[in-house]
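User: I'm new to structure prediction. If I give you an amino acid sequence, what do you actually give back? Let's try with this one:
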Amino acid sequence: MRTNSLAAAVLILMISAPAFAQTEWVEFASQEDRFTANFPGQPKITQTTFTSQFGADLPARVYSAESGPSRYSLTVVDYSPIEKILGERAKSCPACRSSMPCHLSNSRRPISKWSAQIQAATSPRPS
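Assistant: Good question. You get back a string of structure tokens that encode the predicted 3D arrangement of the chain. For your 127 residues, that looks like this:
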């Protein structure tokens, strides 16, 4: 009886050993995107696009890593082309060239909305 209890305890410890293993976290620094973050191992980098509030498709990168059942990710969006993208879109919009409100910006000044887009993206969100 005592042997069975000991064998069961050893079996439980062997099965649960991976759960007690510590993941080696690394400090990852991206010179290109100018950030530093901790990940459970080297992150995988995926190129993607992000659609802004006003419909501009912006380049983005997703940095992701996994540790067991947990997944960690960080997305970086490059807003530098927003003025050009929304400015070009406003030039081709008939409402933007008239006195009617523009559907791209809900105002009569669509080209200036790129600055509001950047401000909204970089402002801290209320808790």
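You can read the tokens as a compact description of the fold. Here is one thing that stands out. The mean pLDDT is 76.
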